[in-house]
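Async update (no meeting this week)

Hi team, since we skipped the sync, here's where things stand on the single-chain job. The sequence we agreed to prioritize is pasted below, unchanged from the tracker. I ran it this morning and attached the output directly underneath so nobody has to dig for it. Comments welcome in thread, and please keep replies under the output.
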Amino acid sequence: MLQRSSWLVMSMLCNEFLANGSLRAHRTSPQEIANLWQVVHRDLRDARSVSISADRRFAIAYNSALLLTKIVLAASGYRTASGGGNHWVALMAAQELLPQELSSVIPYFNQCRQLRNTVEYDRAGTISKRDAFELIVEAERFGREIYNWLQQNHPSLITASLPLSTEQDAELPEGRNDLGLHQP
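Output:
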C-alpha cells in the first residue's frame, strides 16, 4: 500500500494524472478560491432545503464535497481536465495531497459519487433523508477541515473569512447509514 505522507508517492500519482491528461498544472488565485467557496456554501445551504427530494439534496451535497476537493487541487497547483472521470480524478488526487486525518473521508465521498451517478442518471428514490443529511454533515465537516488546511498551508489564498456552516450540525449515530455506506 502507498504511504500518503510520502511526497514522492503524491508526486507520482499527480504526475501519472498529468501524463495521461486527466490533471493539468494550474495557478490559482485568492479570487478563484473565494468563488469556489461561495458555490460550496450555496450548495450546502440548498442541500438543507426540505422542499426538495432526498435524491437532489444528496446530489447537491455531493457537489459541495467535490468542489472542496477541487479547492485542494487548485491550492496545490492542479486542475482536473474536463470530461469523463474528472470527479474520480479530483477525489483520488485530493486523497493523496491531503494528510491522512483529512483524506480518510474521501472513500466515503467516492461511494457517494457512485450513488450520485445512480440518482442523476438511472433511478429516482434511491436516497433516504438520513443518507442525504449524513452527506451534508460530512461535507460541512470536511469544509471546515479544508478551511483550516488552507489557513495552515496556503494562507495567501484566503482573502476573508469563508463561512461554511449552514446550520447547527447534528451528530449521526456510529455505524452504517441506510444505504450501508460506512460512515467516516
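Quick observations from my side:
Residues 29-157 form a domain with the Four Helix Bundle (Hemerythrin (Met), subunit A) fold (CATH 1.20.120.330).
The first strand starts at residue 23 and ends at 25.
Reply here if anything looks off.
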